[in-house]
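Possible race condition, two jobs.
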Amino acid sequence: MLDYTGLIFEIVFLAIGVYVYLFARGVISFKDPAARARSEEFRKENGRILRILALALIAVMGMNIAIHLYSLVKS
């Protein structure tokens, strides 16, 4: 049971990484004009580092999920 809990957390962190990457690229936007303006300003200031960190998180979580699934199938 604990193995599956860890896998669920890894999938959640992978989804967070994908969301942050899409936000940093500008794919995700907000309907509220004030929130949209704030997010655009934040993206202009921090977009480059957000993309790098999101890609790193996606890569690490992808490897963790692959290793976790391999260990679950093997045992």
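Job #2 (started ~2 s after job #1):
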Amino acid sequence: MSESYQVEIRPECLRAADEWERPRGSEIQEVVRRTGLPGRGVARVLGLSDNGGRQVRRWISEDAAIPYSAWAILCDLVGYERIWLNRSPGKTPFEPDDDAD
């Protein structure tokens, strides 16, 4: 009989980009595992190149930093919906600049 082992994802990794702390390799591996997809499948979902599975492995081994956008998409896939809107208590949501055209 096999036991299911899950790595807890730290709350600071599930924040909006300006408050985000980069996940550890074990956290990336856990989120990838929860997708149920192989590395190549994850790469395809993220729009990476044909060698994207290698990039996913580099994120897990911490040989390369995972971009926030890739992490946010993976988190959304596994049920941590829209982490880009997850602000600390007391912080206001992002608002467009008045100067923006």
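The chain is about 35% helix and 0% strand.
Logs attached separately.
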